[in-house]
Amino acid sequence: MFFAAVFSAKAQTEVLFKMKMLPDRTYASTMKMDMNMEMNYDGDAATMDKIKASGLKMPMIMQMQSGSTADIKTGSVKNNYFPFSMSMQQLESKMTMNGQPSPMPPASTAVQTMYGKCPVDGLMEIDSIPGTAMNDSLKSTMKKLMKSIQSTVQFPAKPMKVGDTFTQESPFDIPMAGMSAKMTMKATYKLISIANGKANFDLNFTMSMDMGLGGKGAMDMKGDGDGKMVYDIATNYPSDSKQNMNILYSITIPQQNMTMKGKMKMLMDQQTVVK
């Protein structure tokens, strides 16, 4: 009886985690970001004299709040695949520069919808975007982007118990018109507790990004941070994710013979309800 009880307790405290979408569900996500950014310019004497003469105060302090929503609806399984639709919309943004409100473009009321399919034990694939011709190049780009997004958290192949950790390094290619961006994030997750069908993880990470600005300069970013993730065991999906990031950046602007340097602090919060 004693050994049976020990085995039962061990089985209850070990969980095999796997991030995956489920058929016949709705996923309603809200993403919010708060950013505080300090910006400074560095250049030759003539350039700096022009900046001072313009009355621009250094360093510039920018504060910004933005967000978006994403709703995913999955259908029933047929031949080991199920269809899905994904609808995304931007939320209203706010920004201040050196404490003064700065005008922002109004949030678009348009909802961007995409359609695709998902294998039962695989990753979502985008098949079509209304109003957009899905040529081979765009399909390849969207496939890479969706794979990067869905591979953000890759759990170990074996069950985890409280106190266990795992580390993963995720490279991202971020497609943007006329620009190229490569980002690498290395994250370590630690399972803190399992209770009431939820698994709580602490997170620590480092990141770096290099971005070419289409021949008009380049951006280099490096940072680190921490966060927390709540994983819902029944739905195989995170219900809550928070990340704090501290970043140092440098942007070269050769046309104006100067460099912008600074630091930023970002708080990202994502909530997802699965029904």
State the share of residues found in helices, binned by percent.
10-25%
Note poorly predicted spans. 1-11
Oligomer: single chain
Mean pLDDT: 85
Strand element count: 15
Radius of gyration: 22 Å
Written overview of the protein:
The chain is mainly beta and 275 residues long. The protein has helices at 2-13, 45-53, 136-150, and strands at residues 14-15, 26-43, 60-74, 81-90, 94-97, 100-101, 112-119, 125-128, 160-161, 165-176, 179-195, 198-212, 218-232, 237-253, 258-274. The chain has one domain (23-274). The protein contains 3 helices and 15 strands. The strands form 2 sheets. Strands 2, 3, 4, 5, 6, 7, 8, 10, 11, 12, 13, 14 and 15 form a 13-stranded antiparallel β-sheet that branches. A two-stranded antiparallel sheet has the order 1-9. A hairpin with a 5-residue loop joins strand 7 (112-119) and strand 8.
Brief digest:
The protein is mainly beta. It contains three helices and 15 strands. It is globular, with a radius of gyration of 22 Å.
Question: What is the strand and helix layout of this fold?
Answer:
Elements: H1 2-13, E1 14-15, E2 26-43, H2 45-53, E3 60-74, E4 81-90, E5 94-97, E6 100-101, E7 112-119, E8 125-128, H3 136-150, E9 160-161, E10 165-176, E11 179-195, E12 198-212, E13 218-232, E14 237-253, E15 258-274
Antiparallel strand pairs: 1-9, 2-3, 2-15, 3-4, 3-5, 4-7, 5-6, 7-8, 10-11, 11-12, 12-13, 13-14, 14-15
